[in-house]
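Team,

Forwarding the record for the chain on the shared tracking sheet. I've put the sequence and predicted structure together so nobody has to dig through attachments.
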Amino acid sequence: MSIHPSAVVAAGAVVPESCTIGPFCTVGPEVVLGGECNLISHVVLDGRTRIGARNTIYPFTSIGISPQDLKYRGEPTETEIGDENTIRECVTVSRGTAKGGGITRIGSENLIMAYAHVGHDSQVGNHCILANAATLAGHVTIEDYATVGAFSPVHQFCTVGAYAYIGGGTIVTQDVLPYSLTSARRENKAFGINKVGLSRRGFSPERLQLLQKAYRLLLAAKLNTSAALEKMKELAGAEDAVNDVARLIAFIERSERGVIK
């Protein structure tokens, strides 16, 4: 096991021999690390925190710290992180709150860039990117393969749909449609599908064409949301291809904050 002499690893912490704990790191007594994790330096792991294997955590990051919530009274809430994440400099991840579900989760194979913040009770999926200074308030859900651009704050209880791409500097106060390219050029607006990103993720031309048809109904057909949904359901039922439209419809129907169109 490689633990720098200046690091402080509390009794009770679980640190496999394959891990590297760099200079001036602090690992709390209820922290559990998976194999081959690398804490480069000045990393703080606190609270009931479980971190999977092969994660790389860069300097001045704090994970499992108490939530920035005035109602928090020291309840034994948790933080859970999957495998093979890259967490860059000065990232903060707050543990959950008793009334918010009790746990903050981050999945696997994510890139969380410098100065990003993951607030209490937030749920981040797999293969996501949080760019520099992306800020998730409490209770935010980021679905798989989504990207939150630099300096983009996401309001409490918002959901960012799978494969969505949020442009830098966008203030998100409603749910972001899956597969969408959403940005704030003058006002928050969805500009259609994230075609480049979806192509890179292996979406076939047929899947892209189906999604483009659905987005035209939703954004460009001068229909209100209810009328657009009815037309989209007809489209979803008529296609034999992988049905991303059904996922899009379900996302809109369960949205509580409304969606950015």
